[in-house]
User: Which sequence fits this backbone?
């Protein structure tokens, strides 16, 4: 959906890279199996991270090789879908669908029309996901309602709206089997949610100020021309760093599995890399329309061949 | 003097055991016995002295507790105050953040202590931006208070001690990655020149002047 949470490939061991790809392919297959072929287009890096983080507490899933439309000739290794994969797939559908609904409500013109059309295509999938995870679906709706209420009063602070989104992600931590794990995951995902919200607000800043829409960063730092001031950058960097530090503290408490190095790479390498790009205004690619990363992993494969 | 941690080659977050081990390994390596009758003995001795000093500095620093206190960023307020504030402080220390927040919101006064405690509540909740704002307010209202100052200093992300991840992912490594760019003008020129060379090899010419 956002594409901020991705590994830093140049720091990733080959075997870890393979595992990340297997998780990516696994999530894609899970989406297709649970929600039909269309759902493959919803696949994203953020949800792959979610699937990986949630699967740390599961007994290791068997991975096999499978073909798919994107790789029709050579089967790719892919993680079998366990409970964690299914949870990530369900959240993918729920979040993306409700984001489109938001677009329909807030925007006008071609963007709203397109969102309305694709939204209709996925209405059935969303109902299915909501029926399967009623409490997550309710949390998504509640979080988006809270966000809208805060947007309407144009609250001049970052933390309250970030909290609404972060709580939504944190609620997924309950998938861990034991209480200690649940607490660690909730903490990790809460601060990840905060961080994503912060990055997204910075990234949207120019577009939001141009259209006069509410943007928490603009409201907090009284930015009117869409460009981050040096002071705002320093302050945002501090806030993001605090959240990343909290994630690091949670990270050292995660169980030690073959997937843990991938999760560590994303938190310790990928997030700071993205953060630096977003804060300096040099994030190379715009978000794809309709939040799809399904076109492949070309951008990660290009990235990180540095240093 | 050099940073004692870098002399021993350990992260600031290293445990006491790791530091002791790093110190022992280095001391064995540079021990004067290894350099008996060697021209480099004085250099090894210098190195040995540096290592000893670094180890002593770290041990002293950790025993005094100065660096310890900020290992996880800011730890929270301590006991003190009176009336409602004392109760709020006790609540925050015991982790009853929601109760502390409610008690603060019910109050009418907004003095430095109120802002400080509200900042503490926010920090505990993970609302780092609000926390810094409140504590800044507290510092502005009561600039002489050492507790507020310390909180303001330690609420900064840089004050957190990084957990040890085996030496990888040090922060400075990520400062320096070059930005991704598709194709700079430099790349274009180089490609053209290469193409020109190839053409010349084949007997033709792409750029006539070179």
Assistant:
């Amino acid at each position: 959906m956002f594409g901020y949470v991705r590994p830093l490939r140049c720091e990733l061991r080959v075997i870890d890279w393979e595992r990340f790809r297997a998780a990516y392919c696994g999530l894609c297959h899970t989406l297709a199996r649970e929600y039909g072929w269309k759902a493959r287009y919803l696949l994203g890096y953020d949800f792959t991270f979610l699937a990986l983080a949630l699967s740390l507490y599961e007994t290791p899933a068997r991975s096999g090789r499978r073909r798919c439309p994107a790789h029709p000739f050579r089967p790719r290794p892919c993680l079998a879908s366990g409970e964690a994969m299914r949870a990530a797939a369900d959240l993918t559908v729920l979040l993306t669908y409700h984001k489109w609904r938001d677009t329909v409500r807030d925007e006008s013109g071609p963007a709203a029309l397109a969102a309305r059309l694709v939204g209709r295509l996925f209405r059935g999938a969303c109902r299915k996901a909501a029926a399967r995870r009623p409490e997550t679906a309710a949390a998504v709706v509640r979080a988006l309602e809270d966000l809208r209420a805060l947007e309407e009063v144009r609250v001049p602070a970052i933390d309250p709206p970030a909290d609404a989104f972060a709580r939504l992600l944190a609620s997924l931590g309950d998938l861990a089997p034991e209480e200690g794990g649940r607490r660690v995951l909730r903490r990790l995902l809460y601060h990840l949610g905060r961080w994503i919200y912060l990055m997204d607000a910075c990234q949207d800043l120019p577009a939001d100020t141009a259209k006069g829409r509410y943007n928490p960063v603009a409201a907090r730092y009284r930015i009117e021309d869409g460009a981050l001031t040096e002071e705002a950058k320093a302050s945002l960097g501090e806030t993001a760093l605090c959240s990343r530090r909290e994630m690091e503290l949670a990270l050292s408490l995660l169980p030690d599995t073959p997937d843990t190095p991938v999760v560590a790479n994303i938190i310790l390498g990928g997030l700071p890399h993205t953060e630096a790009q977003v804060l300096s205004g040099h994030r190379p690619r715009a978000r794809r329309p309709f939040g799809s990363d399904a076109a492949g992993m070309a951008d990660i494969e290009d990235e990180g061949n540095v240093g | 003097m050099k940073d004692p941690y870098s002399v021993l080659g350990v992260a600031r977050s290293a445990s006491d055991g790791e530091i002791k081990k790093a110190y022992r390994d280095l001391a064995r390596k540079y021990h004067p016995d290894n350099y008996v009758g060697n021209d480099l003995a004085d250099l090894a001795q210098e190195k040995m002295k540096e290592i000893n000093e670094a180890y002593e500095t770290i041990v002293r620093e950790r025993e005094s507790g100065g660096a310890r206190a900020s290992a996880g960023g800011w730890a929270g307020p301590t006991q003190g105050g009176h009336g409602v504030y004392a109760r709020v402080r006790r609540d925050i220390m015991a982790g009853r953040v929601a109760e502390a927040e409610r008690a603060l919101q019910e109050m009418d006064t907004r003095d430095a202590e109120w802002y400080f405690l509200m900042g503490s509540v926010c920090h505990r909740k993970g609302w780092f931006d609000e926390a810094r704002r409140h504590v800044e307010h507290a510092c502005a209202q009561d600039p002489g208070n050492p507790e507020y100052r310390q909180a303001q200093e330690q609420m900064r992300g840089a004050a957190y001690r990084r957990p040890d991840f085996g030496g990888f992912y040090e922060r400075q490594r990520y400062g320096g990655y070059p930005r991704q760019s598709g194709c700079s003008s430099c790349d274009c020129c180089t490609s053209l020149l290469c193409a020109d060379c190839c053409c010349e090899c084949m007997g033709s010419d792409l750029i006539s002047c070179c």
Remarks:
- The first helix of chain A runs from residue 14 to 35.
